[in-house]
């Protein structure tokens, strides 16, 4: 087995214009954090207790069991190693790689719901147990018949003042809870979203803490039906489940009562906003923006390294086969997603900081930031997961045939990450939520109100510049202005369409539906403007080393120009940009790709994914792809024997029979 680095990759690294460690530091927030990250990753990746056969060779049941064992072990080790809460994600992502785990919902939603929705007494009762994994919970909201439409949930929690209990019931087949991660086999508790009824009156969806399995033998409690929903497109390592209740009684104190309350006599105490009950989803949407940047970065790392190792065809007669990354068409497939990965990585950081600031404010009782936080996280969740989806698939196809093999790591990455466009709010629906906020804000600005935050730009609509003006299409100020103008114009046009539909006699819901394609387009443009502006702003950081600010500026330019050329109609339609501008943009893209080409490997190395996390034969740091492809294939279960048992069962009699008939 070759121990040295593939010469092509070695040369790529020698020829890059900057030290990737500097960008790694920039991406992770400083050298100390990078040091900590590497220590924790190395600790996890070199721990023999976490080693197991490749998941691709396992059944769904084996994947679940392997991951359950591994994650439980991880919980124990995190405790023993006393890893700081803030650093745990480094350790965790090294242990689980690109796979979801059966405790993901406990950590990612059950605990956050207790933090965000439980009263102090309820925290005192449950948090210690939940934080220490003495109980395991999930977030059970979606039903077979309703995921998007939360107000349409059918599960009921009916208050019985005589016993001071809620009666939990699943009235129909479509009311079965369906999908919650870790529900199928792992969890013994859940946060249940159910329609609250008091004295026959409905108060909408509320969160309840419900025990579903015995703490003694893990059997479903009386009245509870629970199980796994079966194999999925990906997520084999997680037991997504179904759940139904037959008049199960829980104490009044089990409704999470930080905001809404039900008094013993059945008096309902209203929350400051009914949408506070949706808080956990907002947090996870913000997380998905971070995650989308990371998965795209992984896919691009694999495809870029492999494209430097892979040599194919003849560019010049008689010359050696070139590295496929030297084909400009290959660069055009990968570099826009390399740039997008950086863009979303940085957007994710901003989104998390907006989330932290706003949620601190909200938990102190000031809910004024809630609409902006919801609109921003919904739009960015949708945009980032859509781009990551398309980008992962583009990277897979850019790896040719080997991209289709599980050895590449790309099919599994895709299968596990693509539901990010669906869960935590289906993307179109999320964009329409952002559009709703944009329409409201736009109307406020028409009434002379000054707007703040991500919609501040809607206050001052820019005029279309005079014809004949030339622009420098590489100037980030010019590019941000163009995105801003496009977003403001598309918001305006969607608002006009909505108004026209109303004036033509449609009621508000029908008008909204008729205008919804334009509304989604406006929300996309708004979110894309946010991403481009955020990238450009991060480059103005005066502490940024000049050796890396050049290459990051190129990535930012490429990201903005590629989006502009792909959506050129939006920029041209009202004459804001001219055909000359767009032609210039296309030429700049080619020039930028040529400049980025020598730095491509260093730019993906800077994401700093160790091989154990990438889990890809094609994306290996040392580039020794071919020998490891063969080694990987040999490990396949079908190769355990030279002659498979099915030969004796089926093939042998079949062949013998055919031969006998000759
Ligand atoms: C160590 C690390 C450990 C763990 C890892 C942690 C994280 C990992 C990161 C990522 C991976 C994450 C998870 C793992 C995988 C899968 C988990 C998946 C879980 C789930 O999917 S849970 C179920 C999610 N379900 C949804 O998202 C449902 C979507 N639907 C809705 O949200 C609502 O129904 C919808 C569509 C918003 C409509 O709501 P409603 O009908 O009530 O509202 P209206 O449309 O009438 O609007 C009324 C009003 O309210 C505003 N609004 C709506 N939602 C919110 C909100 N959330 N916050 C604030 N405001 C909201 C809306 O805009 C309207 O305002 P207006 O009247 O216009 O002023
Ligand atoms: C892997 C995975 C894990 C999950 N984990 C959990 C979990 O832990 N807990 C949990 O509770 N749920 C979970 N879910 C469920 C998930 O949250 C829902 O599937 C999601 O919210 C989408 O809802 P839906 O399935 O009802 O889609 P639907 O709403 O039925 O979407 C179908 C189509 O209808 C369109 N549509 C729906 N409403 C509108 C509208 N108002 N306007 C325009 N178009 C519309 C959508 O755009 C989409 O194209 C998970 C799902 C998956 C795939």
TrEMBL record:
<dbReference type="InterPro" id="IPR046373">
    <property type="entry name" value="Acyl-CoA_Oxase/DH_mid-dom_sf"/>
</dbReference>
<feature type="binding site">
    <location>
        <position position="142"/>
    </location>
    <ligand>
        <name>FAD</name>
    </ligand>
</feature>
<keyword id="KW-0576">Peroxisome</keyword>
<feature type="domain" description="Acyl-CoA oxidase C-terminal">
    <location>
        <begin position="476"/>
        <end position="655"/>
    </location>
</feature>
<feature type="binding site">
    <location>
        <position position="181"/>
    </location>
    <ligand>
        <name>FAD</name>
    </ligand>
</feature>
<protein>
    <recommendedName>
        <fullName>Acyl-coenzyme A oxidase</fullName>
    </recommendedName>
</protein>
<dbReference type="InterPro" id="IPR012258">
    <property type="entry name" value="Acyl-CoA_oxidase"/>
</dbReference>
<dbReference type="GO" id="GO:0033540">
    <property type="term" value="P:fatty acid beta-oxidation using acyl-CoA oxidase"/>
</dbReference>
<keyword id="KW-0285">Flavoprotein</keyword>
<dbReference type="InterPro" id="IPR055060">
    <property type="entry name" value="ACOX_C_alpha1"/>
</dbReference>
<dbReference type="Pfam" id="PF22924">
    <property type="entry name" value="ACOX_C_alpha1"/>
</dbReference>
<dbReference type="Pfam" id="PF01756">
    <property type="entry name" value="ACOX"/>
</dbReference>
<dbReference type="GO" id="GO:0000038">
    <property type="term" value="P:very long-chain fatty acid metabolic process"/>
</dbReference>
<comment type="similarity">
    <text>Belongs to the acyl-CoA oxidase family.</text>
</comment>
<dbReference type="InterPro" id="IPR036250">
    <property type="entry name" value="AcylCo_DH-like_C"/>
</dbReference>
<keyword id="KW-0597">Phosphoprotein</keyword>
<dbReference type="InterPro" id="IPR029320">
    <property type="entry name" value="Acyl-CoA_ox_N"/>
</dbReference>
<dbReference type="GO" id="GO:0005777">
    <property type="term" value="C:peroxisome"/>
</dbReference>
<feature type="active site" description="Proton acceptor">
    <location>
        <position position="424"/>
    </location>
</feature>
<dbReference type="InterPro" id="IPR009100">
    <property type="entry name" value="AcylCoA_DH/oxidase_NM_dom_sf"/>
</dbReference>
<dbReference type="GO" id="GO:0055088">
    <property type="term" value="P:lipid homeostasis"/>
</dbReference>
<keyword id="KW-0276">Fatty acid metabolism</keyword>
<dbReference type="GO" id="GO:0071949">
    <property type="term" value="F:FAD binding"/>
</dbReference>
<dbReference type="InterPro" id="IPR037069">
    <property type="entry name" value="AcylCoA_DH/ox_N_sf"/>
</dbReference>
<feature type="domain" description="Acyl-coenzyme A oxidase N-terminal">
    <location>
        <begin position="19"/>
        <end position="136"/>
    </location>
</feature>
<comment type="pathway">
    <text>Lipid metabolism; peroxisomal fatty acid beta-oxidation.</text>
</comment>
<dbReference type="InterPro" id="IPR002655">
    <property type="entry name" value="Acyl-CoA_oxidase_C"/>
</dbReference>
<keyword id="KW-0560">Oxidoreductase</keyword>
<dbReference type="Pfam" id="PF14749">
    <property type="entry name" value="Acyl-CoA_ox_N"/>
</dbReference>
<keyword id="KW-0443">Lipid metabolism</keyword>
<dbReference type="GO" id="GO:0005504">
    <property type="term" value="F:fatty acid binding"/>
</dbReference>
<keyword id="KW-0274">FAD</keyword>
<feature type="domain" description="Acyl-CoA oxidase C-alpha1">
    <location>
        <begin position="278"/>
        <end position="439"/>
    </location>
</feature>
<dbReference type="GO" id="GO:0003997">
    <property type="term" value="F:acyl-CoA oxidase activity"/>
</dbReference>
């Amino acid at each position: 087995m070759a121990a040295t680095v593939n010469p092509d990759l070695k040369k790529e690294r020698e020829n890059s214009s900057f030290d990737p460690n500097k960008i790694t530091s920039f991406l992770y927030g400083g050298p100390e954090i990078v040091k900590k990250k590497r220590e924790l990753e190395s600790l996890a990746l070199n721990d023999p207790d976490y080693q197991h056969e490749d998941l691709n060779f396992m059944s769904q049941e084996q994947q679940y069991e392997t991951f359950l064992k591994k994650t439980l072990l991880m919980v124990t080790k995190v405790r023993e190693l006393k890893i700081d809460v803030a650093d745990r994600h480094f350790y965790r992502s090294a242990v689980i790689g690109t796979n979801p785990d059966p405790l993901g919902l406990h950590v990612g939603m059950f605990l956050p719901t207790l933090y965000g929705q439980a009263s102090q007494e309820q925290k005192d009762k449950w948090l210690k147990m939940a934080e220490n994994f003495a109980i395991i919970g999930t977030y059970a909201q979606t039903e077979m018949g309703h995921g998007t439409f939360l107000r349409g949930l059918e599960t009921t929690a009916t208050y019985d003042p005589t016993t001071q209990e809620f009666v939990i019931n699943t009235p129909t087949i479509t009311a079965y809870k369906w999908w919650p991660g870790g529900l199928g086999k792992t969890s013994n508790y859940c946060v249940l979203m159910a329609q609250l009824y008091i004295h026959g009156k409905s108060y909408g969806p509320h969160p309840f803490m419900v025990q579903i399995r015995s703490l003694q033998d893990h059997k479903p409690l009386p009245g509870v039906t629970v199980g796994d929903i079966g194999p999925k497109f990906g997520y084999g390592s997680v037991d997504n489940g179904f759940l139904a209740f037959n008049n199960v009684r829980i104490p009044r104190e089990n409704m999470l009562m930080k905001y809404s309350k039900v008094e013993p006599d059945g008096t309902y105490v209203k929350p400051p906003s009914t949408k506070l009950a949706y808080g956990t989803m907002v947090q996870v949407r913000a997380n998905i923006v971070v995650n989308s940047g990371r998965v795209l970065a992984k896919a691009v790392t694999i495809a870029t390294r492999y494209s430097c190792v892979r040599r194919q065809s003849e560019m010049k007669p008689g010359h050696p086969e070139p590295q496929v990354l030297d084909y400009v068409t290959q660069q055009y497939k990968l570099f826009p997603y390399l740039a997008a990965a950086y863009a979303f990585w940085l957007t994710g950081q901003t989104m998390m900081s907006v989330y932290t600031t706003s949620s601190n404010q909200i938990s102190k009782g000031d809910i004024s930031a809630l609409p902006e936080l919801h609109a921003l996280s919904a739009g960015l969740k949708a945009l980032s997961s859509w781009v990551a989806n398309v980008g992962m698939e583009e990277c897979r196809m850019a790896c040719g045939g080997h991209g289709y093999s599980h050895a590449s790591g790309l099919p599994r990455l895709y299968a596990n990450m693509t539901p990010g466009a669906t869960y935590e709010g289906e993307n179109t629906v999320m964009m329409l939520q952002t559009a709703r906020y944009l329409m409201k804000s736009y109307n406020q600005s028409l009434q002379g109100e000054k707007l703040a935050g991500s919609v501040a730009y809607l206050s001052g609509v820019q005029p279309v510049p005079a014809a004949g003006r030339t622009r420098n299409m590489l100037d980030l100020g010019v590019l941000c202005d163009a995105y801003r103008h496009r977003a403001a114009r598309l918001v305006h046009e969607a608002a006009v369409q909505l108004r026209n539909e109303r004036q033509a006699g449609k009621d508000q819901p029908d008008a909204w539906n008729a205008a919804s394609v334009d509304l989604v387009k406006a929300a996309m443009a708004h979110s894309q403007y946010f991403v481009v502006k955020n990238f450009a702003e991060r480059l103005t950081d005066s502490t940024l080393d000049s050796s890396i600010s050049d290459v990051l500026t190129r990535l930012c330019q490429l990201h903005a120009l590629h989006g502009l050329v792909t959506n050129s109609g939006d920029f041209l339609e009202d004459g804001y940009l001219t055909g000359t501008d767009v032609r210039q943009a296309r030429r700049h893209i080619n020039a930028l790709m040529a400049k980025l080409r020598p730095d491509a490997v260093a730019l993906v190395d800077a994401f700093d994914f160790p091989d154990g996390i990438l889990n890809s034969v094609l994306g290996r740091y040392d580039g020794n792809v071919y020998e490891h492809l063969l080694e990987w294939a040999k490990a396949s279960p079908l190769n355990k024997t030279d002659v498979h048992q099915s030969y004796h069962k089926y093939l042998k009699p079949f062949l013998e029979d055919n031969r006998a008939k000759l």
